[in-house]
């Protein structure tokens, strides 16, 4: 499983979250407590918003802890809304094209989880991408195709519904192929203004999703950034967290009944 | 444009062809004489046959001339049939998944050229890949999809016809989309036993393809490996060269009339 | 030979200099007009000043033109004083440790040129590095050892004299070993406040150094950033350019007579 | 701590040792049982002997488990004496120059351990390298300088004594600087004909070194290649194992009393 964190709040240097926390993502990438795969060394990525219309992106195939560029970039790049992701491949190659976050116009998306039986429905999933978006497909991961389907399903107009519709589409394909493995999906998406994080699984083991409001910012991610969980809210499975300004609210995924059917 | 060479003959160390020729592929990668793009520094690859059932593969995103591993591997790997390719990207990313040669079972394929208007027909091309082969699609290049279509069109049974049918398929799509740019295709494919190299373009400027028989081997490639062209046969456009044992023969592509229509 | 450019002036996005010039450094890296080596594809680097006390750094071993990160970083990083360098190795390995610019505290340094017979005096040069600075030696290049000697010779107190003393030290070693190849050195150094660029060679062929004052900034580099040389001043060999605020002045290197002796 | 294994015996494909063991080095690189550092993802390397006079070398900065080239190379390269190493950096950069094994003429060397207080005696250690060998220094690791000192101390004539003398030299420098951290050194060296593996530490915690004779070959390494330790001999600290043909013998390091003084 991958790990990720997203930050919204006062403008800070990225290093204050990426390196200076006792359980920062870079430290986590070396050893895992709450996830199944030991190491997150199959590439990493950053996405951040600033005054530009589209977010900045940095993808690297080295482990995060050994990339000297990351140390310097995190010391010099400031942002009030940024994403970071460390990858543990579930099969696809370690290449920059397969690193999160993925971007589209002013949107960023990243993901931890897996599409059960992905290799056996990749053909069908790719065929759901409309021609107008097909040029965006750069790699071969499940995460990228999920993001493109979210866009196709109206992410820009109604992100919550687009996410629910995309999960339903994938579950439907999995049912047609009689796939028994689960669809697990803990993700976050942003347009630069607000963030929507989702925790979902078709079985009982949704990957963890933690959220915490600090004085000047909110952090959400696959694991707490502190060794203690104190003050970190575990978002319930089947729910999403909407983060805007200094507030977050947790609500059920739209159409959750349908997804669980 | 990319450059490539293929060798068939007595077993030799790869370095004898890759480094020790006055106009070797590694030297060519630094400066071009006969091709349009100055530098071939967007990744390279090797494929070679030995006693194993499937060929060895080595792909790297560094320029060939600066990869210290290549020097050592070429000094220690021996083969009687091998491919080498230096890439100059026409747009897609520099990643190992996009490096030639591509492989499938005991087959190798590499390519120099371009599908005119590729981005506008990539959607249609990918949809021609049958479900059974779709899992082989790793990157986003035109070369890889051409190879998968060749397999779908019967490469294992009748390679010449499969190549011709694939070119016809692509030209047909290009016509439907009213693409004016040409389809250029200078390639080689092998099953480990024989090689078939093709020189084709839908316009008058097919990328060059040179062939030469030496005492103990045959070399075919996008450029001669000697600064002089002496003894190097330029394969005519619309033709293919079949290389088996110590012999090569040049013949017209099947259905050439149809392709030129 | 390498190529480089340095910018001082109004705060701009790096892309305005790195990509949006008709003869930008990234374009130059693909094909050279004024330098001897065709391609600058053996790594590149950026260094930039912002509000932090020490400069930001980004080093990469891929060719500059094919690094997708560089495109995004250059679109999102702003600076009023920055360095960029594209490398063509004269022998040492392509690794991040060997990429320019080099940094020390608030100082940046980058370089085009070569120490004649470097391999035969590397032993002596490294032994001139004082113990207190030796931990800074990361790679094996001549450029890095030159920078460390400049620091040892008082760069922080009197940069012009430190540069002249360092050149004298190296020339002295070369004389002791009876090296006939020249010492060529076109470089720039900054403390974040001003820049000092030097053009020097022990023979008649000092690598080029061009400078131009625009309305809001000054650019200095190994080549003009425009295809026309109009308005670009060629700094004479044996001279340095001091750039502070919106002004530059050109003067002879200290002790030039001694260096030419 | 790093991990490594060395093989001597019948010619085999490298994959039979690197991938097909239940506790192979590539599996080990993902999770450690007996060593302190969790992950060995800071580069890896191979060295192998064949008919060439000097060994083949392959170094990569990616984690071993995610390098697609390694899978293919290990399937196609055969050897009767080879080294493999997975690195966990104790501070120096992840670059190919810093990856083991190191080579010199027909010699290979690799190492697990650390020179206590290395940064504070690196200056002195580098100055012990004779001028004739100094050109071999490519990186900045303690391992590389140890190997160069071993050569300077007569590795080619009397490897056991050269190793002991080198350890004594380093311990002497550490004593002069009053370094309290230990010198730990579990290594193997070969000339292509025999292997000498050493297990040493100046404190009580020498890194493990296991050896096992199979019917047709001998394996020695930092950990057993089987989950069970059965049949694996733990070489005692302060001892070396000499492996030649199908035999190994364990004996005390020369001058061990002096080293422990």
Automatic annotation (TrEMBL), chains A, B, C, D:
One of its GO terms (molecular function) is transferase activity. The keyword Nucleotide-binding does not apply. CDD domains: YafJ (cd01908). Residues 2-246 form the Glutamine amidotransferase type-2 domain. PROSITE patterns: GATASE_TYPE_2. Keywords: Glutamine amidotransferase. InterPro entries: EgtC-like, Gamma-glu_amide_hydrolase, GATase_2_dom, Ntn_hydrolases_N. This is Glutamine amidotransferase class-II. It comes from Marinomonas posidonica (strain CECT 7376 / NCIMB 14433 / IVIA-Po-181).
């Amino acid at each position: 499983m991958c790990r990720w964190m997203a930050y919204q709040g006062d403008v800070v240097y990225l290093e204050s979250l990426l390196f200076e926390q006792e359980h920062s993502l870079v430290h986590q990438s070396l050893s895992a407590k709450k996830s199944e795969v030991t190491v997150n060394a199959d590439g990493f990525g950053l996405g951040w918003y600033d005054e530009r219309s589209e977010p900045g992106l940095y993808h690297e195939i080295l482990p995060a802890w050994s990339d000297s560029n990351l140390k310097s970039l995190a010391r010099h790049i400031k942002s009030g809304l940024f994403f970071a992701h460390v990858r543990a491949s579930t099969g696809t190659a370690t290449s920059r094209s397969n690193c999160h976050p993925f971007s589209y116009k002013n949107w960023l998306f990243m993901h931890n989880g897996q599409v059960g039986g992905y290799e056996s429905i990749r053909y069908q999933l790719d065929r759901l991408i409309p021609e107008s978006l097909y040029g965006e497909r750069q790699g071969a991961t499940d995460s990228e195709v999920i993001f493109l389907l979210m866009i196709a399903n109206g992410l820009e107009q109604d992100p919550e519904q687009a996410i629910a519709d995309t999960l339903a589409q994938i579950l439907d394909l999995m049912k047609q192929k009689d796939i028994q493995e689960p669809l697990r999906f803990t993700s976050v998406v942003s347009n630069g203004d607000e963030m929507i994080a989702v925790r979902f699984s078709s079985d009982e083991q949704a990957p963890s999703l933690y959220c915490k409001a600090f004085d000047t910012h909110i952090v959400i991610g696959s694991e707490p950034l502190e060794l203690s969980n104190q003050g970190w809210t575990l978002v319930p499975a089947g729910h999403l967290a909407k983060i805007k300004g200094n507030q977050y609210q947790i609500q059920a995924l739209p159409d959750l009944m349908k997804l669980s059917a």
